[in-house]
Write a structure and sequence with these properties.
Elements: H1 2-27, H2 36-55, H3 62-82, H4 86-104, H5 113-127, H6 146-152, H7 166-188, H8 192-208, H9 218-234, H10 243-259, H11 268-276, H12 280-285, H13 287-307, H14 327-341, H15 353-357, H16 363-368, H17 370-388, H18 390-393, H19 396-400, H20 411-430, H21 434-453, H22 463-487, E1 516-520, E2 523-527, E3 540-541, E4 548-553, E5 556-561
Parallel strand pairs: 2-3
Antiparallel strand pairs: 1-2, 4-5
Helix pairs in contact: 1-2, 1-3, 1-4, 2-6, 2-7, 4-7, 5-6, 7-8, 7-9, 8-9, 8-21, 8-22, 9-10, 9-21, 10-11, 10-13, 17-21, 20-21
Length: about 575
Amino acid sequence: MINIFISSIFSCIILLSSGIIFEKFIFHKKTKNIDPWTAGLYGFIIIGFISLSINFFFPINKIFGTAYFFFSLIIFFIYFLKYKKKKELILITLFVSITSFLLITSANINRPDAGLYHLPYIRIIQENKIILGLTNLHYRFGYTSIFQYISAMYNNLFFKVEFLNLPLASLFPFFFLFLFKKFTGALRENNEIKTISIFFIIIFSLYSFNRYSNYGNDIPASIFFFVLIVIVFEIEKIKEINLNEFFYILIISIFLLMLKTSMVVVLLLPLVIFLLNKSKKNILKNKNTVLSVIFISSWIIKNILISGCVIFPLKETCLKNLYYYNENITILASSEAEAWAKGYPDSKKKMSFLEYNSNFNWIKTWANNHLIKILEKLMPLLIFIVIFFSKKIFNKSFWNKYNLKKLITNHKILLIIIFTSICTIFWFLKFPVYRFGMSFISTLIIFLSITFFINKKDSMYSKRFYFNVIAIGFILFCGKNLNRIIKNHDLIYHNSPWPQIYTMKINEKNNEKKFLKIKDDNLTFYYSGGEECMYSKSPCSNYYNKDLKQKKINYYSSFFIKKN
């Protein structure tokens, strides 16, 4: 266990250092003025961008991982010397490390997605530069997230290979620090609306993000969506937004798309803010506009190279003239993903994916299954809101004075409600499963409740109340994870108690599996025989298409389907 804790400390240092780079070179903050409470969260963006950029030309091997590790140590040491509140920095590092340790020790990986394509893709980019037509080997590789590139960068000579699990485990504690900093700032400002909105997000996050095994690619997207909302809510005047505020919103929105394709709708927010802004020319002339274009272009180019599509599996964005583009796989992946999100496995009627998705044929099945689960997941938040506002809900005088016309007095809240409503409608029509839309729906519920029950003159509860509730929530968060560690203390396997990355079965020893190597004059890959590839030699797939071929073009490998 001591190995995991020490690894967690260095994970924290890597992310803090990366956040310092983000703040210093993009927003030109002086090193001594960079806030460690929020910087660590932005470190994920920089690591992802650096890792992706390298992979266009090289594998993310141990040489690059080790070099970046040493670079991070140097940056952290310089920052430590210049930062005045050294005790605070040490406490932040310990908080992130301990929380990461609790989350990851004896935890399971996200099942089955981690075994199907998260871990296999990490291994692919650690051993290969970008492979053209990779979705022909397994279409799920088109769904990969920038988080796989972040995890791949944790590949170095000093730590166990399981070190790659730590970016996910470090994410929540950095997010919690970000929220807590914003929350205490709102309290100092006596901004009741801002205080309560962030307070609700904290409570929702503590019970929604308390299991590492649930994280996958969905929780990081939800976390950064909340970050985006908090930043938007801090803007004083949307139409007069300053350049730094705009570029925080733009870069995080782009990062959300890279985390999860379903977050493409989020790009509407910076677009609307740009159109409303009075300083459009200043935004367009700023160097960060160029950086943002490079940032999103790199992801689009990566998508085109591995799948032939700007956004896989949206066929309207695909370049059909590319020799490795596979229209059949794209259409299948698109219809299958949407159908499964709409409850296709629960349907008693036999129909194709396309038929199930059309004309709202899915509604009844979805309502009888997914909708019930969604309501169950949201019930704690709804109950908490009712209890929190009980003084007003059960007060007749409040309702007697209630004026419907004055519901929206805050333009930022109106923007957030409209924005999250659009996101929720998009989610409902395309992929209405809870984990894809949890941040959309919960944000909408939170800000609607604030609109109904809060006004500027309100003073709902004391500071002690807020801090006590957050403290109890965090203790329960830690208690749940500590209970899992104690319960699984006698579970022995290779590299325990790190999460198992070689097997999905608890009773196996977690040793790296040696799958069948398919090799002939035109093809080389590992076939797992139908089981999850996990973190095995790459490239690996759990199915084998007999028409699959491989060739090299200018030192780049490519997979394509032989056309009859």
